[in-house]
Amino acid sequence: MTDLGKAADPSVVDDDIVPLSEAVKVWARVAALSFGGPAGQIAVMHRIIVDEKRWIGEHRFLHALNYCMLLPGPEAHQLAIYIGWLLNRTLGGMIAGLLFVLPGFLSILALSYIYVLFGNVTVVEGMFFGLKCAVLAVVVQAVFRIGSRALRNGLMVGLAAAAFVAIFFLHVPFPVIIIAAGVIGYIGGRTGASAFRVGGGHKAGSDKVLEDRDSLLGEEIPPHAAPNLAWSLKTSGVLAALWLLPVAALLLALGQHSVFTQIGIFFSQMAVVTFGGAYAVLAYVAQQAVQGFGWLWPGEMLDGLGMAETTPGPLIMVTQFVGFLAGYRDPGSINPLAAATLAAVLTTWVTFIPSFLWIFAGAPFMERMRGNAALSGAMAAITAAVVGVILNLAVWFGLHVLFRDTTTLTIGPLNWDVPILHSVDWPSLVLTLLAALALFRLKQSVIAVLFASAVLGIAWKVLT
């Protein structure tokens, strides 16, 4: 075992905690099993890295997770980068992060090809019909699941309600809501108000706790993980250039009206404000992609989320599908499938490169953030606001899944979409209720419900 008892010296290049070849195999396995959203992905990571391999202890795992939850972007992906960096330095973090995304990227790319080439085939159409209904039930479940954890007092309920009103009735942009909630929480945390105290985020799910001292890594910080401002600045500069220079090049070469430039800028902005996970940001992505840019239809956004739910990797991979359709429908002078593929790669690049930047820039300094009341308050307030945003997403999806037509109702400064009741889609309603029954009452897994809904959707389309 590596000697971790020595004083941490950033100039010392220590050996890997585990052999890199073994780490690659383990991270590939984690990636292949990472279904079910962030909670499921974190549980898989915990089971393999902590319980099975015993590479790091329980408290270090939760400490890293809490740090990742303070960051914008997919926390499960960032946690993989963090642990990979901790065990195998910068290369280990890069490998863990890339492997975590790769299976989902390839799966959704393949499904996207099928979608645009065979989407009108009855079987494919029925599969996505069923997935839409199941996804609506899954999003509603997410409102209850996250709400039960985040809305622990009246103030948090009020923040969630205010966020819903702001985004649904007033159409306040998602980033503004998140920033406002963060500022409120930061101030509340600094004053020591008990309402802004937050716990440990996702539950790791292990009955027998592996103490840090009994893990392979041990309790001490390895030399490469000690705070090193020069290393952090250099690494951050390289990653920032990899992220932003391609976007700048697209802007200069193609202009601001090119679909590729729009994708690069829009999803780069998303990477900075995606607090609260994929469900929270999807409402804003859907609003802009559907109503702002016209890249896809509301039902297609649900199709993409269905793909992301049924493939390994972060749910935010749904943005890849959005980019794919945008490139396919506005290919310019190149082949539509080639343009779609390039747009999917670009979307994925600007969505996930920032996660590496946040981790490599801040992870060595995370110990100084531990227990910071102001940051914990900001996280509590943001999480509460996210509940309201996800509720908006559920309502938005419900309007477009359960009804064929909607209209806009305006009262003073408020305006919102309402359903035309006689346009209710009865097959969608029945299948959504069945999916909700399976999730809420029968406690079936998300994957099982999605699979069963897809089968029922196919059966309905074939028989009718």
From TrEMBL:
Task: Supply the source organism's classification.
Answer: Bacteria, Pseudomonadati, Pseudomonadota, Alphaproteobacteria, Hyphomicrobiales
Tell me the GO molecular function terms: chromate transmembrane transporter activity
Q: Which GO terms describe its cellular component?
A: plasma membrane
* Protein name in the entry: Putative chromate transporter (ChrA-like)
Statement: the UniProt record of this protein carries the keyword Membrane: yes
Is the keyword Thylakoid in the record?
no
Question: Which keywords are on file for this protein?
Answer: Cell membrane, Membrane, Transmembrane, Transmembrane helix
Its record classes its membrane topology as: Multi-pass membrane protein
Q: Where in the cell is it found?
A: Cell membrane
Q: Which family does it belong to?
A: Belongs to the chromate ion transporter (CHR) (TC 2.A.51) family.
Where would one find the signal peptide in this protein?
none
Question: PANTHER family given for it?
Answer: CHROMATE ION TRANSPORTER (EUROFUNG) (PTHR33567:SF3)
Looking up InterPro entries in the UniProt record yields:
Chr_Tranpt_l_chain, Chromate_transpt
Domain of life, per the record? Answer: Bacteria
Q: Where are the transmembrane segments?
A: 91-115, 127-147, 159-187, 237-254, 266-286, 337-361, 373-399, 419-439, 446-463
Q: Name one Pfam family in it.
A: Chromate_transp
